[in-house]
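Why do we bother with holo predictions? Because pocket geometry can differ from the apo form. Keep that in mind while you read this record for WQD.
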Amino acid sequence: MSDKKKILVTGGSGYIGSHTCVALMEAGYDVVVIDNLSNSEPWVMDRVGEICGRKPEFCEMDLQDREGVRKFFSEHKGLDGVIHFAASKAVGDSVANPLKYYRNNLGSLVNLLEGVLENGIQSMVFSSSCTVYGQPDELPVTEDAPIKRAESPYGNTKQISEEILADTQEACPNLQVIALRYFNPIGAHSSARIGELPRGVPDNLIPYVTQTAAGLRDKLRVFGSDYATRDGSCIRDYIHVMDLAEAHVVAMDRLLNHWNSEPMEVFNLGTGTGVSVLEVIASFEKVSGRKLAYEITTRRPGDIEQVWADTRRANEVLGWTAKRSLDDALASAWRWECALRGIEGN
Ligand code: WQD
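The structure, written out:
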Protein backbone atom coordinates (compact mmCIF):
# COMPACT_ATOMS: atom_id res chain seq x y z
CA MET A 1 0.00 0.00 0.00
CA SER A 2 1.60 3.26 -1.12
CA ASP A 3 1.89 6.01 1.46
CA LYS A 4 2.16 8.57 -1.34
CA LYS A 5 -0.61 11.12 -1.66
CA LYS A 6 -2.69 10.41 -4.76
CA ILE A 7 -3.92 13.26 -6.98
CA LEU A 8 -6.53 13.13 -9.75
CA VAL A 9 -5.49 15.29 -12.72
CA THR A 10 -8.32 15.91 -15.17
CA GLY A 11 -7.08 16.86 -18.65
CA GLY A 12 -3.75 15.35 -17.63
CA SER A 13 -2.64 14.41 -21.15
CA GLY A 14 -3.06 18.00 -22.33
CA TYR A 15 -0.33 20.63 -22.56
CA ILE A 16 -0.28 22.06 -19.02
CA GLY A 17 -1.79 18.90 -17.53
CA SER A 18 0.99 16.61 -18.77
CA HIS A 19 3.72 18.95 -17.51
CA THR A 20 1.93 19.11 -14.15
CA CYS A 21 1.81 15.30 -13.99
CA VAL A 22 5.60 15.30 -14.37
CA ALA A 23 6.04 17.91 -11.64
CA LEU A 24 3.64 16.05 -9.29
CA MET A 25 5.32 12.67 -9.75
CA GLU A 26 8.78 14.18 -9.36
CA ALA A 27 7.53 15.72 -6.09
CA GLY A 28 6.54 12.24 -4.86
CA TYR A 29 2.81 12.21 -5.60
CA ASP A 30 0.96 9.36 -7.28
CA VAL A 31 -1.21 10.54 -10.18
CA VAL A 32 -4.44 9.34 -11.78
CA VAL A 33 -5.42 11.04 -15.05
CA ILE A 34 -8.83 11.45 -16.61
CA ASP A 35 -8.82 12.68 -20.21
CA ASN A 36 -11.20 12.27 -23.17
CA LEU A 37 -8.32 12.75 -25.64
CA SER A 38 -10.37 15.37 -27.53
CA ASN A 39 -7.34 17.66 -27.66
CA SER A 40 -4.38 15.43 -26.83
CA GLU A 41 -2.69 12.19 -27.86
CA PRO A 42 -2.66 8.80 -26.05
CA TRP A 43 1.15 8.56 -26.27
CA VAL A 44 1.62 11.62 -24.03
CA MET A 45 1.13 9.42 -20.95
CA ASP A 46 3.86 7.09 -22.22
CA ARG A 47 6.18 10.09 -22.52
CA VAL A 48 5.32 11.21 -18.96
CA GLY A 49 6.18 7.68 -17.82
CA GLU A 50 9.47 7.87 -19.72
CA ILE A 51 10.41 11.14 -18.02
CA CYS A 52 9.36 10.06 -14.51
CA GLY A 53 10.22 6.37 -14.58
CA ARG A 54 6.61 5.46 -13.81
CA LYS A 55 3.33 6.19 -15.63
CA PRO A 56 0.22 7.78 -14.15
CA GLU A 57 -2.88 5.61 -14.07
CA PHE A 58 -4.97 6.70 -17.07
CA CYS A 59 -8.76 6.64 -17.58
CA GLU A 60 -10.10 7.74 -20.96
CA MET A 61 -13.45 9.30 -20.18
CA ASP A 62 -15.48 12.48 -20.60
CA LEU A 63 -16.39 14.46 -17.50
CA GLN A 64 -19.66 15.45 -19.20
CA ASP A 65 -20.79 11.84 -18.54
CA ARG A 66 -22.31 12.21 -15.07
CA GLU A 67 -22.77 8.47 -14.51
CA GLY A 68 -19.28 7.82 -15.81
CA VAL A 69 -17.86 10.28 -13.30
CA ARG A 70 -19.83 8.57 -10.50
CA LYS A 71 -18.46 5.19 -11.61
CA PHE A 72 -14.91 6.54 -11.73
CA PHE A 73 -15.08 7.76 -8.14
CA SER A 74 -16.65 4.50 -6.95
CA GLU A 75 -13.63 2.70 -8.41
CA HIS A 76 -11.01 5.19 -7.18
CA LYS A 77 -11.31 5.63 -3.45
CA GLY A 78 -8.50 7.24 -1.48
CA LEU A 79 -7.85 10.25 -3.70
CA ASP A 80 -6.25 13.08 -1.70
CA GLY A 81 -6.81 15.95 -4.12
CA VAL A 82 -7.88 17.00 -7.59
CA ILE A 83 -6.29 19.33 -10.15
CA HIS A 84 -8.87 20.24 -12.79
CA PHE A 85 -7.59 21.17 -16.25
CA ALA A 86 -10.11 19.43 -18.53
CA ALA A 87 -11.95 22.09 -20.56
CA SER A 88 -12.32 23.44 -24.08
CA LYS A 89 -10.05 26.47 -24.45
CA ALA A 90 -10.07 27.85 -27.99
CA VAL A 91 -11.21 31.45 -27.68
CA GLY A 92 -12.30 31.93 -31.30
CA ASP A 93 -14.13 28.58 -31.42
CA SER A 94 -16.01 29.54 -28.25
CA VAL A 95 -17.42 32.61 -30.01
CA ALA A 96 -18.68 30.40 -32.86
CA ASN A 97 -19.90 27.56 -30.62
CA PRO A 98 -20.76 29.01 -27.19
CA LEU A 99 -23.10 26.19 -26.06
CA LYS A 100 -20.33 23.61 -26.58
CA TYR A 101 -18.16 25.61 -24.16
CA TYR A 102 -20.87 26.20 -21.56
CA ARG A 103 -21.96 22.55 -21.64
CA ASN A 104 -18.45 21.13 -21.52
CA ASN A 105 -16.60 23.50 -19.23
CA LEU A 106 -19.42 24.07 -16.74
CA GLY A 107 -21.15 20.67 -16.97
CA SER A 108 -17.85 18.86 -16.46
CA LEU A 109 -17.01 21.02 -13.45
CA VAL A 110 -20.37 20.34 -11.77
CA ASN A 111 -20.09 16.57 -12.36
CA LEU A 112 -16.55 16.60 -10.99
CA LEU A 113 -17.53 18.61 -7.92
CA GLU A 114 -20.36 16.15 -7.16
CA GLY A 115 -17.80 13.34 -7.20
CA VAL A 116 -15.36 15.33 -5.07
CA LEU A 117 -17.96 16.08 -2.40
CA GLU A 118 -19.53 12.60 -2.40
CA ASN A 119 -16.09 11.10 -1.83
CA GLY A 120 -14.91 13.50 0.87
CA ILE A 121 -12.06 14.97 -1.17
CA GLN A 122 -11.09 18.25 0.47
CA SER A 123 -8.42 19.76 -1.81
CA MET A 124 -8.93 21.09 -5.33
CA VAL A 125 -6.78 23.24 -7.63
CA PHE A 126 -8.55 24.88 -10.55
CA SER A 127 -7.03 25.93 -13.87
CA SER A 128 -8.21 29.48 -14.40
CA SER A 129 -6.93 32.23 -16.67
CA CYS A 130 -5.90 35.88 -16.82
CA THR A 131 -8.62 36.14 -19.44
CA VAL A 132 -11.01 36.81 -16.55
CA TYR A 133 -9.50 40.32 -16.27
CA GLY A 134 -10.13 41.41 -19.85
CA GLN A 135 -8.14 44.62 -20.47
CA PRO A 136 -7.19 45.66 -16.91
CA ASP A 137 -7.43 49.34 -15.97
CA GLU A 138 -4.15 49.14 -14.08
CA LEU A 139 -0.98 47.17 -14.80
CA PRO A 140 0.46 44.95 -13.49
CA VAL A 141 -2.88 43.33 -12.72
CA THR A 142 -3.56 42.05 -9.20
CA GLU A 143 -5.98 39.32 -8.12
CA ASP A 144 -8.23 42.06 -6.68
CA ALA A 145 -8.64 43.78 -10.04
CA PRO A 146 -12.27 44.06 -11.15
CA ILE A 147 -13.51 41.09 -13.14
CA LYS A 148 -14.86 42.58 -16.35
CA ARG A 149 -17.32 41.22 -18.86
CA ALA A 150 -15.49 38.33 -20.50
CA GLU A 151 -14.10 38.87 -23.99
CA SER A 152 -15.38 35.42 -25.10
CA PRO A 153 -17.65 32.57 -23.98
CA TYR A 154 -14.45 30.68 -23.12
CA GLY A 155 -13.36 33.48 -20.77
CA ASN A 156 -16.89 33.59 -19.35
CA THR A 157 -16.76 29.88 -18.51
CA LYS A 158 -13.60 30.59 -16.47
CA GLN A 159 -15.32 33.41 -14.60
CA ILE A 160 -18.44 31.32 -13.93
CA SER A 161 -16.34 28.31 -12.94
CA GLU A 162 -14.56 30.40 -10.31
CA GLU A 163 -17.96 31.49 -8.97
CA ILE A 164 -19.22 27.88 -8.86
CA LEU A 165 -16.10 26.87 -6.93
CA ALA A 166 -16.29 29.79 -4.50
CA ASP A 167 -19.97 29.10 -3.78
CA THR A 168 -19.32 25.37 -3.33
CA GLN A 169 -16.44 26.02 -0.95
CA GLU A 170 -18.62 28.40 1.06
CA ALA A 171 -21.40 25.78 1.27
CA CYS A 172 -19.07 22.88 2.02
CA PRO A 173 -16.48 23.99 4.62
CA ASN A 174 -14.44 20.83 4.23
CA LEU A 175 -13.68 21.68 0.60
CA GLN A 176 -10.74 24.02 0.05
CA VAL A 177 -10.11 25.35 -3.46
CA ILE A 178 -7.25 27.32 -5.01
CA ALA A 179 -7.82 28.95 -8.41
CA LEU A 180 -4.68 29.63 -10.45
CA ARG A 181 -4.99 32.38 -13.07
CA TYR A 182 -2.45 31.61 -15.80
CA PHE A 183 -1.04 34.27 -18.02
CA ASN A 184 0.45 32.95 -21.27
CA PRO A 185 1.92 29.45 -20.85
CA ILE A 186 4.73 28.65 -23.34
CA GLY A 187 7.65 26.27 -23.80
CA ALA A 188 8.15 22.57 -23.14
CA HIS A 189 9.79 20.12 -20.75
CA SER A 190 13.60 20.12 -21.05
CA SER A 191 13.51 16.52 -22.38
CA ALA A 192 11.62 17.68 -25.49
CA ARG A 193 9.45 14.57 -25.03
CA ILE A 194 6.29 16.53 -24.12
CA GLY A 195 5.14 19.99 -25.18
CA GLU A 196 2.35 21.98 -26.79
CA LEU A 197 0.44 19.97 -29.42
CA PRO A 198 -1.99 22.31 -31.20
CA ARG A 199 -4.26 20.56 -33.70
CA GLY A 200 -4.46 22.19 -37.14
CA VAL A 201 -3.39 25.82 -37.52
CA PRO A 202 -2.21 27.12 -34.13
CA ASP A 203 -4.18 30.01 -32.61
CA ASN A 204 -1.46 30.81 -30.10
CA LEU A 205 1.68 32.77 -30.90
CA ILE A 206 4.51 30.45 -29.86
CA PRO A 207 3.47 27.27 -31.70
CA TYR A 208 2.88 29.41 -34.79
CA VAL A 209 6.40 30.85 -34.42
CA THR A 210 8.06 27.44 -34.04
CA GLN A 211 6.03 25.91 -36.88
CA THR A 212 7.05 28.82 -39.13
CA ALA A 213 10.71 28.32 -38.22
CA ALA A 214 10.31 24.58 -38.88
CA GLY A 215 8.94 25.31 -42.35
CA LEU A 216 5.35 24.19 -41.71
CA ARG A 217 4.00 27.76 -42.14
CA ASP A 218 5.30 30.26 -44.68
CA LYS A 219 5.31 33.22 -42.30
CA LEU A 220 3.99 34.51 -39.00
CA ARG A 221 1.37 37.24 -39.13
CA VAL A 222 1.88 39.80 -36.38
CA PHE A 223 -1.64 40.95 -35.51
CA GLY A 224 -1.21 44.70 -35.36
CA SER A 225 1.62 47.13 -34.71
CA ASP A 226 -0.50 50.21 -33.94
CA TYR A 227 -1.20 49.53 -30.27
CA ALA A 228 -0.21 52.08 -27.60
CA THR A 229 2.75 49.94 -26.50
CA ARG A 230 6.51 50.54 -26.67
CA ASP A 231 6.82 48.99 -30.13
CA GLY A 232 3.16 48.95 -31.22
CA SER A 233 2.64 45.20 -30.83
CA CYS A 234 0.60 43.57 -28.04
CA ILE A 235 2.19 42.82 -24.70
CA ARG A 236 1.66 39.60 -22.71
CA ASP A 237 3.21 37.82 -19.71
CA TYR A 238 4.73 34.63 -21.12
CA ILE A 239 5.42 32.00 -18.45
CA HIS A 240 7.37 28.76 -18.90
CA VAL A 241 5.00 25.80 -18.65
CA MET A 242 7.30 24.06 -16.14
CA ASP A 243 7.15 27.09 -13.83
CA LEU A 244 3.39 26.85 -14.13
CA ALA A 245 3.43 23.09 -13.45
CA GLU A 246 5.57 23.55 -10.34
CA ALA A 247 3.13 26.17 -9.05
CA HIS A 248 0.36 23.53 -9.12
CA VAL A 249 2.45 21.26 -6.89
CA VAL A 250 3.05 24.14 -4.45
CA ALA A 251 -0.69 24.92 -4.43
CA MET A 252 -1.60 21.26 -3.75
CA ASP A 253 1.04 21.08 -1.00
CA ARG A 254 -0.57 24.15 0.58
CA LEU A 255 -4.04 22.62 0.44
CA LEU A 256 -2.92 19.30 1.94
CA ASN A 257 -0.86 20.87 4.71
CA HIS A 258 -2.80 23.97 5.78
CA TRP A 259 -6.08 24.66 7.57
CA ASN A 260 -8.96 25.94 5.52
CA SER A 261 -9.01 29.60 4.61
CA GLU A 262 -12.00 31.57 3.47
CA PRO A 263 -12.82 32.62 0.82
CA MET A 264 -11.42 30.52 -2.04
CA GLU A 265 -7.79 31.57 -2.68
CA VAL A 266 -6.84 32.96 -6.09
CA PHE A 267 -3.30 33.45 -7.44
CA ASN A 268 -1.88 35.04 -10.59
CA LEU A 269 0.72 32.83 -12.25
CA GLY A 270 2.95 34.90 -14.45
CA THR A 271 6.51 36.21 -14.52
CA GLY A 272 5.45 39.77 -13.66
CA THR A 273 7.08 41.03 -16.86
CA GLY A 274 5.29 42.07 -20.05
CA VAL A 275 6.85 41.22 -23.41
CA SER A 276 5.69 42.36 -26.87
CA VAL A 277 5.15 40.15 -29.91
CA LEU A 278 8.12 41.77 -31.66
CA GLU A 279 10.28 41.16 -28.57
CA VAL A 280 9.23 37.49 -28.63
CA ILE A 281 10.34 37.27 -32.26
CA ALA A 282 13.71 38.84 -31.43
CA SER A 283 14.23 36.45 -28.52
CA PHE A 284 13.27 33.45 -30.65
CA GLU A 285 15.68 34.43 -33.43
CA LYS A 286 18.45 34.77 -30.82
CA VAL A 287 17.90 31.39 -29.13
CA SER A 288 17.14 29.44 -32.34
CA GLY A 289 19.74 31.08 -34.55
CA ARG A 290 17.04 31.28 -37.23
CA LYS A 291 15.59 34.33 -38.97
CA LEU A 292 11.81 34.26 -38.61
CA ALA A 293 9.66 35.16 -41.63
CA TYR A 294 6.83 37.45 -40.51
CA GLU A 295 4.63 40.29 -41.68
CA ILE A 296 2.66 42.90 -39.81
CA THR A 297 -1.09 42.55 -40.50
CA THR A 298 -4.27 44.01 -39.02
CA ARG A 299 -5.32 43.54 -35.41
CA ARG A 300 -7.02 40.27 -34.38
CA PRO A 301 -10.58 40.91 -33.13
CA GLY A 302 -10.86 40.33 -29.37
CA ASP A 303 -7.19 40.87 -28.61
CA ILE A 304 -6.50 43.04 -25.60
CA GLU A 305 -3.63 45.51 -25.88
CA GLN A 306 -1.47 44.59 -22.91
CA VAL A 307 -1.55 42.54 -19.73
CA TRP A 308 1.01 41.26 -17.27
CA ALA A 309 0.77 39.90 -13.75
CA ASP A 310 1.36 41.32 -10.32
CA THR A 311 2.76 38.13 -8.79
CA ARG A 312 3.35 39.33 -5.22
CA ARG A 313 0.57 37.18 -3.73
CA ALA A 314 1.91 33.95 -5.27
CA ASN A 315 5.46 34.97 -4.31
CA GLU A 316 4.59 35.77 -0.69
CA VAL A 317 1.76 33.36 0.15
CA LEU A 318 2.70 30.35 -2.01
CA GLY A 319 6.43 31.03 -1.80
CA TRP A 320 6.53 30.49 -5.56
CA THR A 321 8.26 32.60 -8.22
CA ALA A 322 8.74 31.85 -11.91
CA LYS A 323 12.40 30.88 -12.35
CA ARG A 324 12.80 30.43 -16.09
CA SER A 325 13.37 33.26 -18.59
CA LEU A 326 11.67 34.03 -21.90
CA ASP A 327 14.78 32.79 -23.70
CA ASP A 328 14.64 29.50 -21.73
CA ALA A 329 10.99 29.05 -22.66
CA LEU A 330 11.46 29.82 -26.35
CA ALA A 331 14.55 27.62 -26.59
CA SER A 332 12.56 24.73 -25.05
CA ALA A 333 9.66 25.37 -27.45
CA TRP A 334 12.07 25.24 -30.38
CA ARG A 335 13.72 22.01 -29.14
CA TRP A 336 10.26 20.46 -28.84
CA GLU A 337 9.26 21.54 -32.37
CA CYS A 338 12.51 20.15 -33.77
CA ALA A 339 11.97 16.85 -31.94
CA LEU A 340 8.38 16.65 -33.24
CA ARG A 341 9.44 17.26 -36.84
CA GLY A 342 12.69 15.28 -36.71
CA ILE A 343 14.79 18.28 -37.70
CA GLU A 344 18.16 19.48 -36.40
CA GLY A 345 17.66 22.56 -34.26
CA ASN A 346 20.50 24.96 -33.63
C1 WQD B 1 -0.54 36.29 -27.88
C2 WQD B 1 -0.20 37.53 -28.69
C3 WQD B 1 -1.72 38.03 -30.47
C4 WQD B 1 -0.84 34.54 -32.91
C5 WQD B 1 -4.88 33.14 -25.28
C6 WQD B 1 -6.18 33.00 -24.60
C7 WQD B 1 -5.98 32.95 -23.12
C8 WQD B 1 -4.99 31.87 -22.78
C9 WQD B 1 -3.68 32.09 -23.53
C10 WQD B 1 -6.17 29.90 -22.14
C11 WQD B 1 -1.42 38.36 -29.02
C12 WQD B 1 -0.35 37.70 -31.01
C13 WQD B 1 -0.84 35.45 -31.88
C14 WQD B 1 -0.36 34.91 -34.19
C15 WQD B 1 0.10 37.10 -33.35
N1 WQD B 1 -5.52 30.61 -23.07
N2 WQD B 1 -0.38 36.72 -32.11
N3 WQD B 1 0.10 36.19 -34.37
O1 WQD B 1 -4.61 35.65 -27.06
O2 WQD B 1 -2.91 36.35 -25.29
O3 WQD B 1 -4.30 34.35 -24.90
O4 WQD B 1 -4.01 32.10 -24.93
O5 WQD B 1 -6.38 30.20 -21.00
O6 WQD B 1 -7.21 32.66 -22.53
O7 WQD B 1 -6.94 34.15 -24.91
O8 WQD B 1 -2.51 34.28 -26.61
O9 WQD B 1 -0.81 33.29 -28.08
O10 WQD B 1 -3.13 33.73 -29.03
O11 WQD B 1 -1.61 35.63 -28.57
O12 WQD B 1 0.50 38.26 -33.53
O13 WQD B 1 -0.33 34.13 -35.18
O14 WQD B 1 0.36 37.13 -29.94
O15 WQD B 1 -2.28 39.14 -31.18
O16 WQD B 1 -1.05 39.72 -28.94
P1 WQD B 1 -3.62 35.28 -26.02
P2 WQD B 1 -2.02 34.15 -28.14
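The mean pLDDT is 96.
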